[in-house]
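Progress report, Aim 2. The chain analyzed during this reporting quarter is listed below.
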Amino acid sequence: MQTLQTTSLRVVDNKLWILDQQALPQQKNWLPADNTEALVGHIHALRVRGAPLIGLSASLLLALLAEHGMTRDALGQALDVLRAARPTAVNLMNNLDRMKQALTQPDFAAALGAEALRLVQEDRELCERIARAGSELVAPGSRLLTHCNTGGLATAGVGTALGVIARAHEEGKVANVWVDETRPLLQGGRLTAWELGELAVPYQLITDSMAAS
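Predicted structure tokens for the chain:
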């Protein structure tokens, strides 16, 4: 598979790496996810999080396992294990449905690889469309409130809601972003604040209970 890079996923030398989101913002650690057990562990520990990212990481892993020679039957079993990792993640279910269809093709390894890359590209394009459409609704000088984390860490692109903020900032329309800490795991305080800092977006971290004020 070709080399691939997103904010929180990498494919290098036919190996999947994930950015440990539990270590952010103190450390930026890239961890291998080269088998189903490893990826399921990362998902359960929230080192991989965000519905789009979970679905994409599972799809890429299946494609890489096929490229490394795993049989059709073994890939079907791996797919079922990955599906059970987060049954409530809609993207995971939808992506794996498409990968399951690719697995039925005669050259299933090539089909899985093509489908996984297609899913990544579709997510990037979706994020871009959301960012463009959402930014049109942001007035110049806006002060915005965001909760949890919906940026590039959770997707293959610029993000969903946070992608809107990033695009509006590029267009000079964001005066400030209030970032809810998002207890108990602090996805806002740790992840969104980190992403906004990387993008040079002005922000202020607040406790969740301050949002109404």
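DSSP finds seven helices and seven strands in the chain. Helices lie at 36-44, 51-67, 72-83, 90-102, 108-135, 161-170, 187-198. These observations will guide the mutagenesis work planned for the next reporting period.
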